[in-house]
Amino acid sequence: MEQIGPVLALTLNRPEKKNAITQEMYQTLATKINEAAADFAIRVVVINSNGDSFTAGNDINDFANNPAMDQGSPVFNFLFAIHNFPKPLIAAVKGRAVGIGTTMLMHCDLVTANPDTKFSMPFVSLGLVAEGGSSYLFPRLVGHAKAAEIFLTGRTFSADEALAMGLINKITTDELAAAMEFANEIAEQPPDAVINTKALLKSGSHEALNQVMRAEGELFRMAAESDEAQQAFMNFLAKKSKVK
User: Fold this and answer.
1) Which residues are 194's β-sheet partners?
2) Which pLDDT belongs to residue 239?
3) What is the number of alpha carbons within 13 Å of residue 179 lying toward its C-beta?
4) At 132, phi and psi to the nearest 5?
5) Buried b (16+ CB within 10 A) or exposed e, 54-90
6) Upper half-sphere CA count for residue 39 (Cβ side, 13 Å)
7) Which residues contact 236 (CB under 8 A, 6 or more apart)?
8) Partners of residue 4 on adjacent β-strands
9) Residue ranges per domain, the chain?
10) CA distances from 211 to 3, 109, 119, 136 (A)
11) How far is residue 243's CA from residue 153's CA, in Å, rounded to a whole number?
């Protein structure tokens, strides 16, 4: 975490695990984002990462032991922190952006990405369902056919495809510098006008998304506890051990 003038940079910092997110990391992110919401000195938050990847998604070992997605859980707290964050939220993405690494971008106001970024939402492949409001936000962004193709196959897509979809704003070899440039430009604008404009942009879907995210969380929890998901997790971990 680093505050640079009116911009707060939150950095995923577990590069040895490709920034796979643990419950503890989710809660820390949620706390920092909620604190930033109440801090007048912070105008914009930028989420970025150390290492060669944005995030490999949930830490599978951590998640398999505690698949909590209900109200009050760290994952739930993070998702609702970014959903309800009233100020501009920007992400700088590179390498792998798996699962939550892609779905969280749908709650960001701007996203910059390195040309090497590979996005994926392999929930079905793990016996799970979409989370983070993505079952609502993604088809609204790209249409039903494209959303179904990506969700139901779990396939990876490129930065160029993400730009064409409207998921990201800019492709650049220095994604963090570009994100900070956006952040500083926005931070110079009248803050109340920025906050009110973001609220207006989200007003048509905010409450509907609350309901969808709660429903997704319940279905996700049920799926995670199923035999199908447990088998998919074991297959995933077995593949990882073979790669090593």
Assistant:
1) none
2) 73
3) 31
4) 70, 20
5) bbbbbbbebbbeebebeeebbbbbbbbbbbebebbbb
6) 16
7) 60, 126
8) 7
9) 2-174+191-243
10) 33, 21, 26, 10
11) 22
Other CB atoms within 10 A of residue 228 CB: 12
In CATH, 2-174+191-243 is 3.90.226.10: yes
Tell me the pairing of strands 89-93 and 7-12: unpaired
Q: DSSP letter string over 217-244? A: HHHHHHHHTSHHHHHHHHHHHHHHHHH-
CA pair distance 207, 79, nearest whole angstrom: 14
- Tell whether pTM > 0.85: yes
Q: Would you say 85 and 45 are in contact if contact means Cβ atoms under 8 Å apart?
A: yes
Label the pairing between strands 89-93 and 44-49.
parallel
Q: Is the pLDDT of residue 242 over 70?
A: no
Instruction: Using alpha carbons, select from 32, 21, 33 the residue that is nearest to residue 85.
Output: 33
Q: Please give the Cα distance from 148 to 95 (Å, whole number).
A: 24
Sign of the CA dihedral with 223 first, then 19, 61, and 152 last:
positive
Rama region for 5: left / alpha / beta (φ>0; ψ in -120 to 50; rest)? left
Helix (H) / strand (E) element for 177: namely helix 175-187
Predicted pLDDT at 240: 64
94-146 residue pLDDT tens: 999 999 999 999 999 999 999 999 999 999 998 999 999 999 999 999 999 99
- Residue 61 tokens read as 């070992």
